[in-house]
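Milestone M4 deliverable, item 7.
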Amino acid sequence: MTNLEKAREMLLAKTYGNCVLYGDEIIHTSKKQGIAPMLEFLSAGLDMKGFSAADTVAGKALALLMVYAGVSEVYADVMSRGAVEIFERFEVRHVYSELTEQINNRAGDAICPMELAVMNTWEPEEAYKILSDKTQKP
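Output delivered:
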């Protein structure tokens, strides 16, 4: 079983949370939603280079954070076209169950605010700064 298959299996088991990163027997998981797990992993200084990731939803914002972290392959239950573009641009292998035009907010009535925040950037480092600042503000 590949690392991506292991990460996906752990995600689908629903006991590890909404985000699973797996690499050479090292596992990072989080029950938080959205981009919060990746921001938490990055701020903790976790080394995720070459890891395989599985997440419930992957939009452009999450894709940029995963590229910034050095993740090498990603599975998502739902992935946006923006995320696919990022993964293709940075040559990150990606697999999804459902492809969607955009990621909406939790109410489902508008585009996700994190997606809006990174709409005009294609640079992972810039996206990390934008998203970190946005989530730090009350």
